[in-house]
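INPUT
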Amino acid sequence: MAYVAVKGGEQAIDAAHAWLAEERRGDTSSPALSVAQIQDQLGRSVDRVMAEGSLYDRQLAALAIKQAQGDLIEAAFLLRAYRTTLPRFAHSKPVETAAMTIERRISAIFKDLPGGQVLGPTYDYTHRLLDFGLLEDEAPPSGALTAEADAAAMPRVPDILGQEGLLEPDLASDREPGDLTREPLSFPAERDVRLQALARGDEGFVLGMGYSTQRGYGSSHPFAGEIRMGEVSVEIEPAELGFAIDIGDLVLTECQMVTRFKGSKTVPPQFTRGYGLVFGFGERKAMAMALVDRAMRAEELGEDVTAPAQDVEFVLYHSDNIEATGFVEHLKLPHYVDFQSELQNVRRMRAEAEA
Amino acid sequence: MKGYNFAYLDEQTKRMIRRALLKAVAIPGHQVPFGSREMPLPYGWGTGGIQVTAAILGADDVLKVIDQGADDTTNAVSIRRFFARTAGVRTTTATAEATVLQTRHRIPEKTLREDQIIVYQVPQPEPLWRLEPSRVETTRMHGLADYGLMHVKLYEDIARYGQISIAYDYPVMVNERYLMSPSPIPAFDNPKMDMMPALQLFGAGREKRIYAIPPWTRVRSLDFDDHPFRPINAAHPCGLCGATDAYLDEVVTDDRGGRLFVCSDTDHCADRRAAGHVGAQGLREAAE
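OUTPUT
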């Protein structure tokens, strides 16, 4: 067999992408999925892609999901690569989650509290039985009972606990918050940057890390102080105006974990906080994020740093699924030059060992 | 390309990258952190090199992109197309014609000139990462030029195998100050970095680091007096062009142990064949 130089990369790439487009469309006898359908009916996928793609735009997230054939990490990647080209014209004021228009709000530490427990649209307490009725075109569900929540009467649970001084204060810093997407990670990484990394981080990774703290790897005795989900308004304050204007609404999920702290020489025993905040309805992620946030505060609180979730460098360098997927998958790129040198190296070492 | 700036990145980002490049050139071999952007190609597929190329590319530049020494490997094709599309620059496969060369895993055989720039794609800029995973620790070690860990690793290799067992990404000392990863080029290519007339730039997108070797800088592959550095190559001439001084790929030709060794640098091999050099395989084919 004669050696044929491997040419034709260009045609191969074009042909592969044409095949992909055909696969994406699938059987043309069934109607094409519309972006609006994804946006409306696959809301939790849209939420996850917006969170990990770090861009709040339901329509673009739905488009990315369609383009990626439902591969959510690929979709988040598409969204990130688009996000990076967008100009920044303003910074918003901090969103006020205390003023959230609540869709869901629960606390695991008080049976009842001002504003009450609001379950909202949750999978909790559903029986995970496949609903074969959904195989057919379903009738629209009958109108759910929705109660209009009163935001003013819905104080954040940690604030209730804080009045007694039993929970550490959570003071705003005057410092400009860091931005991982503009400045590379450096250590020690402050909490603002850590929270940003977790909010963008892979749900599965953050979940696994959070879970590990519950199994003894950096245990912190967590309680779900409060989980709330709903709409908040985003305000910017243009310099030329001098007052804030409302530019739109975001759906956010916030989780405040309350954990026991035995105190130190200077600080009396009290409860400490772990905080989670994500775009959309991302309760699993927000809870796991709060656990990991608390775990990463070990050093600050004078605890021993022994577990993976407490190792800030380890968590922050491995939480980003766009970085992770790219580098893991780059192994399929050709490596024959390196492999060749390894091959010669092993042959040479064997020859010398046998000599 | 409609809707995008020249060479994809916006001008503020390019300026940020150029500042990092200037600092990198001023401190040869030192890793400079930079605000690496998400690119429309995945991390690990050359985003660092692409950002560096985008930041230095001008409309008159001629770009060559190689992967494993070849212009026609799929990822090289993809990156070359990216710049042809977003910057509209002229591209080439001829090493001598290019003003900017982006590479993964090889340095071309042809000696580069002072008016050329070579941009390396770097997966892991930290040369000490296999020995110390924490970047907080390795940063300190670079600061103190504390490279004992690497010397011990090389010594242990010799004690165990009688030789240094690193075949690619072989660590180098730049300007006798910073230990540097040459990127995963075969150790065979390391000597080309020493006193190279061209500017060498290194971009690691995922790890968000840039580093550089200015022209005519000393680059020394680590070794010991009694165990000098030995680059590795297959002990064959190229089957197509007969070259004996070029890095070779091993091509499996059948399932009975048949092998063909050919130049990894496809442009170099084509040039030699055009000049009338013929290897053993070429002679055999001519005879058939």
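end of record. The mean pLDDT of chain B is 94.
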